[in-house]
Structure formats: structure tokens, C-alpha cells
Amino acid sequence: MESVKLRSESYKEWLSSVQDIVENKGTKKKGLEELHSLVEQGETKAFPKSSLLDQLRSITTEADKVAVMAQQLLNGKRQTRYRSGGGKSQNHNELTVEELRSFVQQLDNLPCNIRQAPLLKDLLARVDDFHKCSERLLSDESPSPQELQDLLDVSLGLDVELPQLPLLRERLEQARWLEAVQQASNRPDSLCLDTMRRLIDQGVGLAPHSSVEKAMARLQELLTVSEQWEEKVLGLMEARPCHSIDTLEAALQEVENIPAYLPNCLQLKDIVTKAKKWLHEAEALQLGGRIPVLESLSELVLIAEGIPVRLEPLSRLEALISDVQNWRESAAKTFLLKNTPFTLLEVLCPRCDVGSGNQKLKSKKLKEISQLVKKSSTKLESVCEIERALSESKDSASAMNTLAEVQQREMAILLALRDSNEAKLLPAENCSALNVCACQKAPLGDMVQCELCRDLFHCGCVAMPADLEFGQAWLCPLCKRSRKPPLDKVLPLLASLQRIRVRLPEGDALRFLIERTVRWQHRVQQACTAGLLSITGNTWPRKATYLSQEINGGSFYIEHQSLPPQALSPDVEELMLEGFLLQVTLPETEQLYRYLTYKLTPPPSHCSPSGRDAEQSPRRSPQHNKNGVSKKESLSSQSKRTKRRKDSSDSQHSDKAKKSRKKKPKKSKERSEDVKKVCSPEHTSSDPAPSDSEEDFSLCAAPWCREPEGDEVNWVQCDGNCNQWFHQVCVGLSAERAEKEDYICISCTQPDYERGD
């Protein structure tokens, strides 16, 4: 009875539970596991058969099916996902939102609970939220791309069919394009034409939308305007003739309002800036009446060539440079020799390369002087350094100071060079190691000595002028650097340069050369007035230290006479040297040299040293002096001069002299005596007849009158203001030159000089 009682109670409990499930009476639903337990209990305990068990089995089976379907929905086995642009693919087997909602409703209607139900309800709630967000973003005119992308990312977790996804993807592409357009518009410095074209191409493929169409219209308009201005500005820059700066500035003012990166417009802006700077520099170049430097003008013109703008001062600057080039060509034709290795600046400047080339300086004194010059002045040791210094000088005064320093160096080194070359020929010198001339070989045979550097040259190595006469100086190729034009041909060059009003190194050098020439002429006048030339030869007597020598079995002698430096005072020697250094031809230079030559060295005989007589001439013996003239020849020359003077009484030249004296009244006796007392040289030859000497010399106004005799008495009258008469031989003129050229004496070339009485 006890067991039956227990079975009855168990059946009642089971039956009550099944009835609650079937009839869905309880507020709290059983779980699916409890339904399976009740079905199993009813079958194992063999409860009486009833319809409730069958209903329980049916409910349990249905709940199992729903649970499996819910699990499948949660596992996402019925669709394929992808993230291209966000969202997922639309599968025709995918559960729709309404189906999901119905399925959730079916879960609620089940008499039991399944564990997938909360998850499906949450899915339905998230789908509802997605729907609300989609409607809000799709209704927005310009939704945020990030919000759209986040919403599409949310859709990846929703395993249901979402009809908003295609619209959301379209709006995302539109939003991204609009954002790119906005970012490009916010940075106009980088919004170039290519960027605008690329954005327009991208916008064409987008789905139609009002915001996209508006942005596309603005972008297309900007592109059109930009392309038009780029083409217009390019035409302005390439136009020939160039446009004025005002026209270009007006174009720039219109372009400044275009919010885009336009390369041609930026280039035009840079061109206008450069043009303004150029105009400012061109204006500042001539402010205050300053004379511009050629280098600055050339730089400005060179810069202007790269500026496609019509610059008003450019034509004037180009004309100035053209005038300077023409002036340079004219100056080069005036000064430079044919095929010369020297430039115009090298010729006009004081020499900075004294002793260069083949002349090897071994004098210790020369090195000491050179070092002293380097320490005491600016280091200007080459023409390039001088040219740079002259170009960088602020004004002409500083340029003159620079050239004055170079002049001091020139004189100091040249004097040392002369001492060095003179020392080569001393008897104590080691003759076996003696190298002279441009060929740097030992002296042999006919030699000629440069009057400036005192170096010896073989007559076969250098060109000797055929008309070189006694009393004319010979300069070697290194010392004869130019044509040495007359001063009256040089002064117009300076005047034309002053009219051009442009400073250039050659112009400063020419001005310094003329000033140096004028100073030298004053010094010559002062030397004549002070009687410095009359004492030459007395204080410094001539020493015959240069004898013909035998070297390696051969002998040499000097073909052309030159001044013995031992017979010159330092002042006279420096005066004569500077006269040779001047790159202009002055009558004073030739007159001074002729006077010193006739005073310090006897004139040679009129016999030709060439031919058979030259081979037997005793000048080649060691008994002859440096100039190759023996005492016998000197006496013969004096007798011939006397004879020629006597024979010339009836000659044409004598008639000319007498006729000339009739044109001009004679000087007073006191004036004649004063001139003789101050500047007349002491005669080494026999004095001519008193009457002829008094008559000839009384009319010559040269302070260093050589008292010519006979055929040498040819006259020339100054074409200046003084109208004084001079012996042609005293002023260094030949009869041909006197007929062809005008002669102006020293006093007339320097009006501010007063001849001392």
C-alpha cells in the first residue's frame, strides 16, 4: 500500500505539471529541459496513457524545432557576410525584420522558455535601433561619413535583411566625396587643377543628390575660372613685347580672389616681386648723383633678362653697357698691340707682374722689397685682384688709392728688378750660370738691353725696329705693353667715358694713368726748373763697368746704346723709369731720354756696324765699352759732326733755320743766358763757333737744348698758346713727324704750370 500511495502521489504531481504546461496557466514558464524531463518521466514510470502526454510530446518537439532555428539564427549560418563599404550581402534566404519579429512573437507564445529567446529579442531591439538611425542619417543633407560608417559596421552584427543598407552605402560615398571636396576647399594652397579634375571625375560616378550636385557645380565653376586665368597669365608672361608692371599687377589683383593653387599666377606674382625689386635697385643705383659701376649694371641687365616685364630703365642701362663696350673697343684699338697677350686693364693699370715670365729674380733686395710692399699695402698681386678691388670700390677716390698702392709696388719691384739684372753683368758674377733673354740662354753675339728692366736680349730673339736711332730708347716685349698713343688721343677717351657716366675698372685705370701722366709732366718741369738735369753726370759720374765678356768661348756686345744707371741720380732715374712706364707717348719722355743720352754717352759714328765693316769692327774687342763705341770712333764722330755743320751753311736746312728766325723775334740776351745757366748741359765735344751757337741756341725754348749743329738744326714751332720755337732734335721730332703732326710743348699741355725764369 505504501508504494501504491507513493506512485499515486507522483502521478498526481506529474499530471499537474503537464496540465500547467499544456494549458499555459503558470506565470512562470518552464524551461525546455523541464519539458523533456516530464516526457521522460511519463514514459519511464509507465503512467496511465492520456492525451496530456501526447500534448506534452508535441509541445516539446515544437519547442525543440524553435530552439534549433533560433540557434541557427544566432550562429549566422544562413548568410554570407562581407565588409566592402560596410554592411553585408543580401541573401534571399535571409530573415527579414518582420520574420524576426514574428519569430520572437512565436517564442513568446511557447509554453516554455528556450535559452536563445533573450538573444533574439536583443537582436530585434538592435534592428529597431538601426532602423531609427538610418532614417535620421538618410534624412540629413550632409551626414557625417563617420556616423554612416559606424552604422554600416553595426549592420554586420544584424543577421536579418536590412533594406536601408544600399542607401546607406550611397550616402557614405557621397559623404566621403563631399568631405574630400570640403577639405580641398579649406586648403586653397594645395587645390590645384589636377585635384579639381580628379574630384569632378569622382563626383560624376556618385548617385544623384542635391548636396552633391551643388558641390559639383561650385567645383566645376572654380575649375573653369582657374583654367581661364592660368591660360591668360601664361599669355601675359610669354607676350613679346613684354607687358608693363601695372598690367601684371592688375591681373594679380583679380587672381588673388580665386581660392585655388594656380602655378602660373604664383609665377607671375614672383615675377612682379622681382620686377619691383629690380626697379628699386636700378633707381638706387643712381641716387644722389652717384656714377654706377659697370659690374652692377651688368648684373642688373642680366637679372632683367630673366624677368618677362617691360622695365623702363632697362633700355637705358643696355644703352649704357653698349656705350661702355664701344668705349672698350675704342680704347683697345688705341692702346693694344696686334696679337698682344695683355688685356686692356693690364695695359692701363700699373704693372703688378713686374719680373714675371722668363725673368728669374734672384736678388735678395728684390725679395725684401716685395715682402715690404706686401706688408704695407693691400695684397693686389694679380690683375684679377685689382679688377675685383676696383669693382668693389665705393667711388673713384678709393679706386685711385688702390691704383696708387699698385703703383708703389710697381716702382719698388721694378727698381729691384733693374738692380738684379744689372748685377748679372758684373765681372764678379758667375758667367757660366748667366741666363738672359726670353730664351734663357747665355749672352752671345749681338745683344740689346732693355732700357726699363735692364735685361739683355739676343738680337735674333727679339724684333728690333729698323728706324731705331741713337737717342731712342728700346723696350723689351715684356716692358712694351701697348702702342703708347699720344696724350691727345687718350684724353678724348676719358672725356667720352665721363659723358657715359659709368664706372668700370678700365676707366678708373685710364683716369689714374692720365693723372699719373700729368703729375709726371709736372715733375719733369720742376726738375728742369730746379736744374736737377744739369747736375746729372757730375754728381753721378759714368762708370764703364759693363765690358764685353767671353762665355764658353763666345763673346757678346750690346748693339744699342742705353743709359748707364750709375750716372743717374736716384730722382732722375726714377723720373726716367716712370716716363717709360706711362702707357702714353709724351714729347717730354723722348726729349728727356735724348737729353740724358747725349749728355751721358757719346753719339756713335755714322758707319754702319753691319756687313763687312761690322765683321772687322774693333767694337767686338774687349777694349770697347758696353755700348760698342771706341774712343777713336767717338773722335771720328765729333769731327764728322763739325764737318757736317760747316758744310751745312748753304744747305736747305740752314736756309730753313734762318727763315724760321725771321718769323719769330729773338729772345732777350738775359733770357738766353738764364736758360743756358739753368738747363744747358756741359759739352763733351769741342764747342762750335760762338756766333752760330749763340744764334741757334737763342731761339730754342727747350730747357734741355742740345745745341744741334749743321743738318740737325731743324725748327718746329709750338702750336699751342706760347708759339715758341724748338729744335726738332731737342723735342724728339723727326722732320716727317713735324710736317704731319701738330706739336704742343709741355707748358701749353699744362696751362697751370709757370715756367721759371
Main attributes of the structure:
single chain; 757 residues; mainly alpha; 4 domains; two-stranded parallel ribbon; 8 strands; 57% helix; disordered C terminus; Spp1/CFP1; metal-binding; zinc ion binding
| Helical/strand content category | mainly alpha
What distance lies between the first and last C-alpha atoms, to the nearest angstrom? 186 Å
> What is the strand arrangement across the widest sheet?
4-3-6-5
Largest sheet: 4 strands, mixed
Please state the oligomeric state of the protein chains shown: single chain
* Global outline: rod-shaped
The number of distinct structural domains comes to: 4
Relative helix content: 55-70%
Strand content: under 5%
Low-confidence stretches: 77-87, 538-547, 606-698, 752-757
Brief rundown of the structure:
By secondary structure, this protein is mostly helical. The chain is built from 28 helices and eight strands.
Describe the overall structure.
This protein has helices at residues 2-23, 32-44, 51-75, 97-109, 117-139, 145-155, 165-186, 193-204, 210-238, 245-255, 263-285, 294-305, 312-335, 344-348, 364-376, 383-392, 396-424, 487-500, 505-530, 570-581, 587-600, 611-615, 631-647, 652-663, 669-679, 690-699, 735-740, 746-749, and strands spanning 30-31, 112-113, 445-449, 456-458, 549-551, 554-558, 715-717, 725-727. The chain is mainly α and 757 residues long. Helix 2 (32-44) runs antiparallel to helix 3 (51-75), helix 11 (263-285) packs antiparallel against helix 12 and helix 13 runs antiparallel to helix 18 (487-500). The strands form three sheets. A four-stranded mixed sheet has the order 4-3-6-5, with no helix packed on it. It starts with a helix and ends in an 8-residue tail after the last helix. It folds into four domains: 2-140, no CATH class; 187-310, no CATH class; 325-603, no CATH class; 651-757, Herpes Virus-1, CATH 3.30.40. A hairpin with a 2-residue loop joins strand 5 and strand 6. Helix content is 57%, strand content 3%.
